[in-house]
Specification:
Strand content: under 5%
Order of helices and strands: HHHHHHHHH
Length: about 200
């Protein structure tokens, strides 16, 4: 018995390729998967709730303008790291562009110093908790799951998420251990494509 991915679903192209092609579906996937994470990054960085929606728009506009320049091979941090770099720049812009009072107390130098203190230092790596990463993966997995037959998905899920032995799952499904490993590999590759880390 073979374990295979359905080829009928047009969403099986990589996220990056879809974005470069201007696919509406790819842009919906990008926003669905990454917007909650960008919101979290904004909150961790001290951005007020009333400004997060504006920063989100600025981030996705920057992605639209720069997607042709993104390269999986050139970026060791992957697509998520690239998204953080863009978000971090927009957060910095937000704090930098706060309106200056007409007559700042202590003069403009003092106001500038206070303004710099108000902008929190932003880390090189995305400020995410394990639960944020898990939520990102769950959003991406929801898109990926519908592309695979139940047996392929279950072979992946049980060996990768539930950490069951490959041989045990293979015996229960009546397939070879190699077929289980292949199923796991296909789903993991598709997940990386969905997250933008594989072209």
């Amino acid at each position: 018995m073979s374990v295979s991915v359905s080829s009928a679903d047009s969403s099986s192209t990589s996220l990056v390729a879809g974005l470069r092609d201007g696919s509406d579906e790819a842009w919906r996937r990008l926003v669905d998967i990454y917007a909650p994470l960008v919101r979290i990054w904004c909150r961790y960085s001290g951005v007020g709730e009333d400004r997060i929606a504006d920063i989100l728009q600025e981030v996705f506009l920057a992605v639209h303008r720069r997607i042709d320049k993104f390269s999986v091979q050139d970026d060791s941090t992957g697509f998520r790291g690239w998204m953080w770099m863009i978000t971090k720049n927009k957060i910095r812009d937000h704090f930098r562009n706060q309106p200056q009072p007409a007559n700042p107390v202590g003069g403009s130098t003092a106001w500038q110093q206070m303004h710099e203190v108000a902008a929190p230092p932003l880390p090189a790596e995305a400020p995410s908790q394990p639960s944020d990463t898990a939520a990102l993966l769950h959003r991406a997995l929801a898109y990926v799951k519908v592309e695979f037959r139940d047996q392929t998905w279950n072979a992946f899920w049980r060996t990768t998420v539930l950490c069951e032995a490959t041989d045990t799952v293979a015996e229960e499904f009546g397939i070879s251990s190699a077929a289980v490993r292949q199923a796991r590999s296909r789903v993991l590759r598709r997940l990386r494509q969905q997250l933008g880390d594989v072209a």
